[in-house]
Amino acid sequence: MELRAPARTGRGFARALRGSGLSRGDRVALFLGNSPDFLAAYLGTHLAGAVVVPVNTAYKRTELRHIFEDAGVRLCLTDGERRPELAGVRGDLPELETVVEVGEDLEVFLKRAGPYERELPGGDDLATIAYTSGTTGRSKGAMLLHRNLVANVRAVCEAWRWTPEDRLLLTLPLFHTHGLTVGAHGTLFTGASAELHRRFDAGRVYDALLAGETTMFFGVPTMYARLLREARARDERPGPLRLYVAGSAPLSPGAFAEFEELFGERILERYGMTETGMNLTNPYHGERRPGTVGGPFPGQEARIVGVKSREVLGPEEVGEIEVRGPHVFAGYWRRPDATEESLGADGWFRTGDLGSVSEDGYYTITGRAKELIISGGYNVYPREVEEVLEGCPGVAEVAVVGLPDEEYGEKVAAAVVRDDPALEAEAVVHFCRGDLAGYKRPREVVFVDELPRNALGKVQKHLVREGS
Ligand code: MLC
Ligand code: AMP
After folding, report:
1. Fewer CB within 10 A of the end CB, N or C, for the chain?
2. CA distances to 13, 117, 152, 199, 448 from 179, in Å
3. Residue 43: which H helix or E strand, with range?
């Protein structure tokens, strides 16, 4: 699938939005797989001055209901695969006036062209509400302004020397930061090209790399693990690429070294998040140091502060990573409390990630201050899974933790106290089916007599992890 900036269709989508009575600031959800239609609708929504709400295609009805309700989505573009899931909650969403499915339905929609004057949104206008898992179990909408997105893509293109001659092999999902605001934005911003795949398939990616037209590949560590497996099984090796980038989860130094051995390339690891886009990067020229994420992108700042003291720490001291710059979001949608907790009046954003910085400016992420599981580059907040499992008949208490996993980095595991001795692990996993995306469902369920608690009654997750 060749990705060309779909200007005509983008404008067509903008006109159709206007024709449907949508105005500036209205929310439009994109709940569909990677495709040129996704990108056309994305650009068209922005051209119409409306706000994009990208939705993870694995989401089930509870997740969908929350996001659509919270964002007040008026129109959704979806595809045949996703439509039934959305149909299951449509009745609960009075604000959702229109659902358009790609294909014939979209063609009809595009004919509804309304008056459209070219009036681009301003830098301070809201561009996107990107939902990111929340500590309370409910995901929060990160408000990204047009100027945040522009600052981010400028910094990325400068740091990685992106040029119009580049051709990116883009297999990351477009509904998340990595695929969208790095992969797609960089391509469109520089006027480069991209080969867009519907989904990541290691064999297909390997073949595409062998074909020799790609200059860049971006992936999460799970994708690199699968590419390494593919390489081990094959004799032929891809020629040199200008740039391989890894991020969204930690890349192990072992994978970095094996990749260099088999592919002859040093992966550039970088660090980002939904609220900020890209924050830290290993250098394009210069040493790419395994196990680190390098230093701030151009025009940005980063620092390490004490978790309790909030004082700035020196080299090699572990604390919370804070970042500041024009890429940092404007706060959480309708959540001033959460915004205040994470975004200081001085502009420093508390990432919730722990790390340290070396004397020569390389940051290392050592852990998380927030209770977060990252499985294959997808974030899972234990509380969200616990809230669903607490409703499972036979479950008295539950604690969800992340355990190390070879393929996905971490996997979701649940320790369950049951009040029905006949309750089985499969039933617990099955119970989540309608409510949680597949990657959030526990891969492991252990039954325990009681959950370890401290004197205040709080579950001690590190003990749960050790016991699992
Ligand atoms: C899929 N499955 C997962 C999973 N992905 N399980 C655990 N963790 C995951 N990440 C499960 C599905 O639920 C399904 O199980 C089964 O695996 C097969 O589904 P699939 O769709 O065929 O999966 P697969 O193609 O194998 O997906 C693996 C993957 C994908 C690595 C290609 O997870 C992926 O695209 N990850 C990238 C996520 C990403 O873009 N993150 C960036 C966030 S932005 P079942 O039981 O349901 O049948 C960010 C900021 C930054 O973090 O810095 O970039
Ligand atoms: P998300 O909220 O989905 O945008 O995920 C952002 C989180 O992914 C960050 O807060 C980090 O915990 C994690 N992350 C991103 N890149 C890296 C990386 N290179 N190494 C370790 N963790 C990362």
Report:
1. N
2. 21, 30, 13, 11, 40
3. helix 36-47
Under DSSP, is residue 152 helix (H, G, I), strand (E, B) or coil? helix
pLDDT of 294 strictly over 60: yes
Q: So what's the pLDDT on residue 172?
A: 98
Q: Where are the alpha helices (DSSP H) in 313-424?
A: 336-342, 382-389
Q: How many domains does the chain have?
A: 3
Atom number of ligand 2 nearest to Cα 293? 19
Token representation of residue 15: 């006109």
Residue 15 within a domain: yes
Q: How high is the pLDDT of residue 434?
A: 85
Out of 321, 344, 368, a domain closes at 368
Do 68 and 191 reside in the same domain of the chain?
Answer: no
Mutation pick for ligand 1 pocket among 200, 226, 293, 433 (CB with most ligand atoms within 8 Å): 200
- Same domain (yes/no): 43, 100: yes
Q: How far is the CA of 405 from the centre of ligand 2 (A)?
A: 17
Ligand 2 pocket test, pick from 281, 321, 328, 353 with the greatest ligand atom count within 8 Å of Cβ, gives: 353
Same domain, 198 and 288: yes
Give yes or no: residues 243 and 227 share one domain: yes
Q: Is residue 308 part of a domain?
A: no
Q: Is the CB of 272 under 6 A from ligand 2?
A: yes
In a domain, 359, yes or no: yes
Residue-wise pLDDT for 202-245, tens only, equals 999 999 999 999 999 999 999 999 999 999 999 999 999 999 99
Residue 423 inside a domain? The answer is yes
- DSSP lists the bridge partners of residue 403 as 411
Nearest to 53 by CA among 163, 157, 144: 144
Q: Report the pLDDT averaged over residues 309-328.
A: 97
Q: Which atom of ligand 2 is nearest to the CA of 177?
A: 4
Using CA atoms, how far apart are residues 64 and 54, in angstroms rounded to an integer? 11
Residue 204: name the closest of 182, 226, 188, 189 by CA.
226
Q: What domain range is 82 assigned to? A: 10-121
